[in-house]
Amino acid sequence: MAHSTDLDLVNVIKRFGSHAAVNDVSFSVAPGEFFSILGPSGCGKTTLMRMIAGFENPTSGDIRIRGKSMIGVPANKRPVNMVFQSLALFPMMSVGENVAYGLTCRDVSRAEAEERASRMLERVGLKGFGERRVTALSGGQRQRVAIARCLVLEPTLVLLDEPLGALDLKLREHMKIELKQLQSTFNTTFAYITHDQSEALVMSDRIAVMNQGKFEQVGSPRELYHNPATPFVASFVGETNKWQGEAAAAANGAISVRLPSGTVVQGQGKVADKASLAFVRPEAVALAQDASVLSSLPNRFEGRVSAVLFDGANSSLLIDTAGFDQPVRAVLPQAGPLAGIQVGAPIHVGWTADAMKVFAA
Ligand SMILES: Nc1ncnc2c1ncn2[C@@H]1O[C@H](COP(=O)(O)OP(=O)(O)OP(=O)(O)O)[C@@H](O)[C@H]1O
């Protein structure tokens, strides 16, 4: 019978000496889901992956695949395959031999292994590449070979450890989309680890944001972006403005935050302490040359452009704003009256209370 989850981690802890690299992590991944673990270097992602793959044993807790505990099951007996950043392809073998290798290790006949490898290569867009040396492929093609080699074994679960890390930016952007499409065509469950928030946002059904051995929040890319549960998630996922101040309850269930300068801004959140952090996304900051345009906004201020960060569709402005110790960052639309704005120009900024998330510091 099909199990309702492909992977379950239950209170998994991994200690190295007294340091808990993974500190009481629990989550489940549904069949066919693209699940990412996103966190900064050293947060414990690789350790977590290595335990799922069977290269490392948890200090305590359980790891189940389709409901069956993997504790004590060696790596080569788990229905799991891993794609590493280094890819670990065999340079002396042809593309076809690389893909067929795992099958022949499992006593599949040579003829059948070759047949299945060649069908798999076709599915990943490498039809006719079977005879080539892997050294005669581009970075993106090698990536696809590594994934083909893994998928041909029909694992329940594919683990990917920063597989795009070694590629240049342009290719990484391309492979993000390709990997997501491959995953949905094969409908195989992927657990993906990365420190790159854009990779995680673009590809994942759900993301766990990991920090210092713990999951801070698990949710869809949209949930994490629009409703971060902690200040860490608010800063780590996506670009954001961030200011410190003192919070107090205000009218209409809003929270007012008094910045060190005495300037007060209005936001939303649950704040137990006075010391607080307020976050606003750059795209939530409205810009206007005429202050009256912003008159309906509870937060509106006058400033001066201190930098124009041109980056095509991702361009933004930094605006020195009286009362703020950090410049306000705002997305700069490349169409419309502000597209050509210069450093030094006066400008008005504003945002709603809903757009400003307030957390205890
Ligand atoms: N074998 C080990 N012995 C001792 N400490 C370890 C071992 N492996 C990892 N650690 C420590 O555990 C913590 C988590 O490491 P891990 O490699 O899981 O992080 P990561 O999030 O994957 O980081 P990166 O993105 O840099 O690979 C780090 O502080 C690391 O130094």
UniProtKB/TrEMBL annotation:
Entry-linked SMART domains: AAA (SM00382)
Keywords: ATP-binding, Nucleotide-binding, Transport
The UniProt record lists the keyword Electron transport: no
MF term (GO), any: ATP binding
GO biological process: quaternary ammonium group transport
Gene Ontology, cellular component aspect: ATP-binding cassette (ABC) transporter complex
UniProt xrefs under InterPro entries: AAA+_ATPase, ABC_SmlMolc_Importer, ABC_transporter-like_ATP-bd, ABC_transporter-like_CS, Mo/tungstate-bd_C_term_dom, P-loop_NTPase, Transp-assoc_OB_typ2
SUPFAM superfamilies (alphabetical): MOP-like, P-loop containing nucleoside triphosphate hydrolases
Residue ranges annotated for the ABC transporter domain, each copy included: 7-237
Lineage top rank: taxon: Bacteria
Keyword Cell membrane: no
Similarity comment: Belongs to the ABC transporter superfamily.
Protein name: Spermidine/putrescine transport system ATP-binding protein
Lineage of the organism: Bacteria, Pseudomonadati, Pseudomonadota, Alphaproteobacteria, Hyphomicrobiales
